[in-house]
Amino acid sequence: MSKPFSKKKDAYQRHFIKLPSDLSHYIYHKEVKAEMMYLYALIVDYLNEDEFGYAFPNVDTLALKYGKSTRTTNAHLKILRDVGLIEFIEGTMYGRAYVPYEPLEADDFYEEYPDAWDAYKSNIKKLEYERAQARIRMQTYRDKQG
User: Fold this and answer.
1) Which residue, 113, 140, 132, is CA-closest to 28?
2) CB 98 within 8 A of CB 86
3) Residue 17: its pLDDT value, please?
């Protein structure tokens, strides 16, 4: 039986990956898909911060946990690198390693990627339009009910 999730300290006893809320802005970047935030989370989860300062899962492991092919996983990793969320370190004793970076805050992100700001504003307009249409439908329904 499922139980509601609790954010209270120590309420969730199993493994949990903590992610910054500022990741949410990145979905408005034209190259980024929301699912890539899970790939970022996997790299954060593999981060060996104390001993090495980077994460070193191989691409096959990431692809398996990500549920994508290695080709897609590699492509998505490159996009995460291009938007500054990760860095590749080649030639470690484990092969390629990854350094996850903190996402930019909203103002900095949208200044760096103005097209993302336009996409965000466009999404707001779509939502406002949908709400207006829902109000009209509800008013029409109420008028018919009398």
Assistant:
1) 113
2) yes
3) 81
